[in-house]
Write a structure and sequence with these properties.
alpha/beta, 11 helices, Putative oxidoreductase, ADH-like_N, six-stranded parallel beta sheet, Zn-ADH-like_protein, 2 domains, GroES-like_sf, oxidoreductase activity
Length: 333
């Protein structure tokens, strides 16, 4: 700890709300516990969930609250015998109910971090966890088989960026609902066809492509009423993975489709206090890092942002009001 400052800069959310009431503050550098690492944070990625909860709040938060779930940093202190060692670059997805990562140092459970290979830069690495893990969990729940059809709703978002690529590797026929400006990008990632979600007659387009039966699998990224709309496009006994909850399903639709429904929650690994699930986050992080290092998966484009109140506030607002084709990445140091 001799080379580590005793205090650190943090960005705090004073209270939840539409104004994103952030302030710069100073806190003591946290102390290590057993089987923990002290990490000097280099980059933090902002996700849509960060922006939504900064506006709506979360039941387990105490204010002021520090945002940021995805982080990359360098281990600067660790108990004897605890891996990874000092000097190692690590990637991790933090616990949603605890203070986040928009700060200069963090204490992290050693079992939850993924070691970053030399071939992957830290700013690229931090763009992978939340969206990439959600895509992997969704595809695992769907048990996608070669030749099956997969529809991804709101496919212009970050989760679809990874889900399209992994689904194609599994041999699926991948279809995407997206706004027209994003369609070429999604097709370059591997989507067989992108439907214009704002165009009338989408149902007729779908029938021309796959017939009347419907899709074998669907990833619903928005939740709410869009989940019910997606069920209309699912084949009988098809599988659907939902990332953001869903409305009450009308009984007639439920029995008409008899869907197999999977709910995706990256944060559930922490909220459920499941050590196995937290270790699984680490394994998924390692998979994402290795796939990017070996060029099996293309990482998203990045938008590097200063570690300042105004810049972070603008990034949160942008995440809620527009599709960010470039991931907002906060450079901490």
């Amino acid at each position: 700890m001799s080379a580590v400052n005793k205090s650190m800069k943090v960005l705090e959310l004073v209270q939840a709300g539409e104004a994103f009431d952030l302030r710069c503050a100073e806190q003591q550098v946290p102390q290590l516990g057993a089987n923990e690492l002290l990490v000097a944070i280099d980059y933090v990625a902002l996700n849509h969930v960060d922006a939504r909860l900064a506006q709506e709040g979360f039941s387990q938060w105490h204010y002021p609250h520090i945002l940021g779930l995805d982080a990359v940093g360098t281990v600067v202190d660790a108990p004897k015998g605890v891996f990874p060692n000092k000097g190692t670059r690590v990637l991790f997805n933090a616990c949603l109910s605890q203070q986040g990562m928009l700060k200069e140092y963090a204490v992290v459970p050693s079992h939850s971090v993924s070691v970053i290979p030399d071939e992957v830069s830290s700013d690229v690495a931090v763009s992978l966890p939340n969206a990439g893990m959600a895509a992997l969990i969704a595809l695992n729940k769907l048990q996608l088989q070669p030749g099956e059809s997969l529809l991804i709703n709101s496919a212009q978002g970050a989760v679809a960026h990874f889900a399209i690529q992994y689904a194609k590797q599994q041999g699926a026929q991948v279809y995407a609902f997206a706004q027209k400006p994003h369609q070429k990008r999604l097709e370059k990632l591997g989507a067989d066809l992108a439907f214009d979600c704002e165009q009338e007659g989408v149902c007729e387009q779908i029938k021309r492509e796959i017939g009347n039966a419907g899709f074998d699998c669907i990833i619903n990224t928005q939740g709410g009423e869009t989940f019910l709309e997606d069920l209309q496009h699912l084949r009988f006994c098809g599988r659907i993975a939902c990332l953001n909850g869903f409305s009450t399903i009308p009984e007639q639709l439920l029995f008409e489709k008899a869907p197999n429904i999977g709910v995706v929650s990256v944060s559930g690994a922490w909220l459920s206090n499941s050590l196995c699930a937290q270790q699984h986050l680490r394994f998924m992080g390692e998979q994402l890092l290795q796939d990017v290092a070996q060029k099996r998966i293309q990482a998203p484009e990045l938008n590097i942002i200063d570690f300042e109140v105004a810049a972070v506030r603008d990034a949160l607002s942008m995440l809620l009001t527009q599709t960010c084709t470039k991931r907002p990445i906060i450079k901490i140091r």
